[in-house]
Design the sequence.
C-alpha cells in the first residue's frame, strides 16, 4: 500500500514530536503493509505551523531517510505538504516554497473545516490555474461537504482528486465524517484513502484495518485503486483511475 497523507516528519507540525516517534510510525506503517509513504507536514496555515517551506522540509526528509536506514526500515519516503488554502498560495508556489506530492503535478490541499463553498471553489480554481491538480485532503470532514456531499462530487467531476481519511472510513472521526465518506465511496467518487496519521497512537499510520473494511464493503478492485493504484499513479505523476 501507499500512504499519500501522513504527518510523520518530526518537529514541524502537530505530527511526530521526535525522531524516535517518527521512526516508530514508519515501522508501524511498514509492518501494516505500507511500502511507500509521503510525508505531508502542514504548510501555510495562518495560525500554527507556517514556518517550514520546501528547502527546509527536503533537508529534514533527508535526515529522516538516514534514520530509517540506520534502523533497517525499508519503507520509501517521499516529500510533500498539506498546503492550507490561503490567498498567498500562488505566490508561494511561484517562489518555490511549496512541495507537491513527490514532485508531481498533484498538490495536497486543505481548508478550514468550516470554510464556505465559495472560498473553497476559488482556492481550487487558483491551484488549477497554476497547472496543478488539487488533491482535496479529507473532504468528508468539511462542514460544507457534510451538509451537501454533492459539492465534493462536483469537485470530482471538474478534475480534482478526493482523498479520504482512514479514520473517517472507520468511524473514529465522528458519525458525520463517516457517513459522508461512505456516501462518496459508495458512488465511486473518491480517489485515495490515506492515514493522515499524526502519532503512533490513535491516529497512527497502520492501513491494514481500513483495507480490510474497504474490501468487505466495496469491490476488491476499487479498494486496491484507493490504497495502491491511484496513490502509485500520483507519486509517479501519472493520470489516476476513476470508477464513477
Sequence:
Amino acid at each position: 500500500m501507499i500512504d499519500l497523507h501522513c504527518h510523520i516528519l518530526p518537529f514541524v507540525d502537530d505530527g511526530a514530536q521526535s525522531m524516535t516517534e517518527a521512526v516508530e510510525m514508519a515501522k508501524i506503517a511498514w509492518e501494516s503493509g505500507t511500502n511507500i509513504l509521503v510525508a505531508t507536514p502542514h504548510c501555510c496555515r495562518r495560525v500554527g505551523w507556517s514556518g517550514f517551506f520546501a528547502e527546509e522540509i527536503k533537508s529534514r526528509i533527508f535526515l529522516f531517510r538516514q534514520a530509517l536506514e540506520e534502523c533497517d526500515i525499508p519503507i520509501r519516503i517521499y516529500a510533500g505538504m498539506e498546503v492550507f488554502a490561503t490567498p498567498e498560495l500562488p505566490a508561494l508556489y511561484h517562489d518555490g516554497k511549496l512541495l507537491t506530492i513527490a514532485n508531481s503535478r498533484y498538490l495536497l490541499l486543505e481548508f478550514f473545516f468550516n470554510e464556505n463553498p465559495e472560498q473553497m471553489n476559488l482556492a481550487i480554481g487558483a491551484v488549477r490555474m497554476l497547472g496543478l491538480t488539487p488533491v482535496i485532503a479529507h473532504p468528508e470532514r468539511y462542514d460544507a461537504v457534510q451538509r451537501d456531499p454533492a459539492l465534493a462530487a462536483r469537485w470530482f467531476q471538474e478534475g480534482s482528486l478526493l482523498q479520504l481519511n482512514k479514520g473517517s472510513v472507520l468511524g473514529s472521526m465522528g458519525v458525520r465524517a463517516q457517513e459522508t465518506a461512505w456516501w462518496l465511496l459508495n458512488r465511486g467518487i473518491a480517489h485515495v484513502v490515506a492515514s493522515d496519521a499524526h502519532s503512533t497512537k490513535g491516529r497512527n499510520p497502520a492501513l491494514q484495518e481500513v483495507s480490510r473494511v474497504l474490501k468487505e464493503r466495496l469491490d476488491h478492485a476499487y479498494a486496491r485503486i484507493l490504497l495502491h493504484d491511484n496513490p502509485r499513479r500520483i507519486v509517479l505523476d501519472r493520470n489516476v483511475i476513476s470508477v464513477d
